[in-house]
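Write out the 3D structure for:
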Amino acid sequence: MVASSVRRRLAGFAVLGAVGLVLAACSVNVPDPASPKPSPSESTLATPTITPGHDAAAVAAKDLPLAAGGTLAPGDPVTVALRLEEVPGWTVVHSALQGEVRYQKADGCTLVARVSVNQEPLVVAGDDAASTKELFRYLDPGIAVENLKPVLLRWGQDSDKPQHSAEFLALDSSAASGGKAAVVFARLFSVPASSVYVSIACPDDGALAKARAEAAAQLVVVPPG
């Protein structure tokens, strides 16, 4: 069931750590699911690279649907920026902790965001949609990927320029099916082999709808370069 899948994945997020924002500098390796578990590795700073002939500004100035993932360059991850603490009721639990940030809201909602790099084992070459489905399967092997829905998040931080969007896949769960209301947004960018995912969990559907709208207004997916 979708609801149980979301709850299991959210539990996995809790094990991984908490979430929040401005994750630009932190990175976390993702192991190959088919390989033996490696010893824990420390987070490292992601070092930007320059790809000859790549126009990062041109990529940032356009929408980034799943089909356009090939316009990104390798080596420099997509990141996120969020100032949810500026919205009444939200507070930062922790930030920039191994690539994660966590927010808590007074009504019981929790938002977790994470940026990860070195995700080549999950990448389907040249296909961000298929790669993102592999990321969801990695987080929850029992997930029904046909229930994932496309959503748009803001792409680019320049407020004085026309706004653009990046396409993600999302999985929703209603509190009516038992447990908390929840939504998870994620995208694995196949060329840089980095991912962004954001989860929001609330006591009921009404609280989730409000928290989701507040997060969407404050969250920005940051292009490389």
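The beta strands are 79-82, 90-97, 100-105, 110-116, 149-155, 164-173, 181-189, 194-202, 219-222.
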